[in-house]
Design goal:
Length: about 170
C-alpha cells in the first residue's frame, strides 16, 4: 500500500513494506522501521540507517503532526480524486485522536468555512497544532471551549449536513 503526503509543499511517497512485527516503510528511497511504544500515547521509535529516533504523532483526519528530534512536522495526506477521508475528520465530525486541551477557538456555530480554514488550536503531548476544516461547510456545533480538556475520541466540532444529502 502506498500513500502520498505533502510536507511544506514537497510531495513525498510512502510505501508500506510490512506491518508485522513492526511497521516497515520506504520513504525517500530509505527503508524506515517503526516500533510502537504505546498504542494510545502516540509515542513511537524509528530506526533509520541503524539510528534510533523517538517521537510522538497525532493524526487528525488527513493531517499528521509529528514531534521528532525537537522539531514539529506537519504532513497532509493527499487524496486521489479530492475526497477527504481519515480517522479524525470525516463526514460531519472532527474527532480527537489523542487527549488534549483547547488553546483557542477560531470557529463558531453557523460560521461558513472553506476546506483548510483553521477551526481551533489544541495542545496534545506538549505539541500545539491547528485543526483545520477537512471540507467546506457550515459549523453546526462546537463541542469544546477554550481551556477545556478532551479525551481521545471526543467530538470537537460538527459540520451541518450537506444540503445534497451527504452525511
Amino acid at each position: 500500500m502506498s500513500y502520498r503526503f505533502d510536507l511544506a509543499g514537497k510531495e513525498l511517497d510512502l510505501a508500506v513494506l510490512a506491518r508485522r512485527p513492526n511497521l516497515l516503510f520506504a520513504l525517500g528511497g530509505q527503508n524506515v522501521s517503526t516500533e510502537e511504544q504505546a498504542a494510545d500515547s502516540g509515542a513511537f521509535a524509528l530506526e533509520i540507517d541503524g539510528r534510533r529516533i523517538t517521537g510522538w504523532r497525532l493524526v487528525v483526519g488527513d493531517d499528521i503532526y509529528l514531534r521528532i528530534a525537537g522539531r514539529n512536522l506537519h504532513l497532509r495526506r493527499l487524496q486521489e480524486g479530492g475526497d477527504a477521508g481519515g480517522s479524525g475528520a470525516g463526514g460531519n465530525d472532527i474527532m480527537a485522536e489523542m487527549p488534549g486541551t483547547v488553546i483557542s477557538l477560531h470557529a463558531a456555530v453557523g460560521q461558513e468555512v472553506a476546506e483548510g480554514d483553521k477551526l481551533l488550536v489544541i495542545e496534545s503531548m506538549k505539541l500545539q497544532m491547528s485543526i483545520t476544516a477537512h471540507r467546506a461547510g457550515r459549523i453546526a456545533k462546537v463541542h469544546v471551549a477554550e481551556n477545556a480538556t478532551f479525551d481521545r475520541g471526543a467530538v470537537l466540532i460538527s459540520f451541518a449536513k450537506d444540503e445534497g444529502g451527504a452525511s
